[in-house]
Amino acid sequence: MLVQGGAGGVGIALIQLAKLAGARVIATVSGRERADRLLRLGLDAAIDHRAENVADAVRRLTDGAGADLVVDPVGGHTLPASLASLKPHGRLVFVGNAGGGELTLDLWPAMMANLSLTGVFMGAEFDKETVYQNVAGLLAQAARGEIDVVIDRRFALAEAAQAHRYIAENQGFGRVLLIA
Known about the structure:
The protein is an alpha/beta fold. 36% of the residues lie in helices and 22% in strands. The chain has seven helices and eight strands, in the order E-H-E-H-E-H-E-H-E-H-E-H-E-H-E. The strands form two sheets. A six-stranded parallel beta sheet has the order 3-2-1-4-5-6, with helices on both faces. Strands 7-8 form a two-stranded parallel sheet.
């Protein structure tokens, strides 16, 4: 499994949940320090997306096969690499567009490799009982210490603009909280 944006709040949760499920997990990061922190959380291999081609690195780390699954919360600029990292019949789940930008993509390569693409937007799903139960289960796992919720920084609500800049500049590792 490849996780795009491994050092973000969603990425950190994905890495831990995938490891609990028995997956081998690779994640993209920016920098050695973030990679080291994720390796301590159970990550199997890190790819510094600033220093190497993500799809090439995934192929190298999977002995040429590619990933069975890519989960991409970054979106926009990472989606082409996410698709290129999959093995034939693999699955891409894109769960957001944290990186901003337009979600445009040439789907011809995906069709030619028989890839599956699934988009997930939880905001429209919270009124469903199954989603509520899944979130409750995740919260219970965190409460039992099975997964760590990494809090990077807390900002006062009055510092919301500073918090957004901090996130936009890719400085965070885990969750960044606004406190009222």
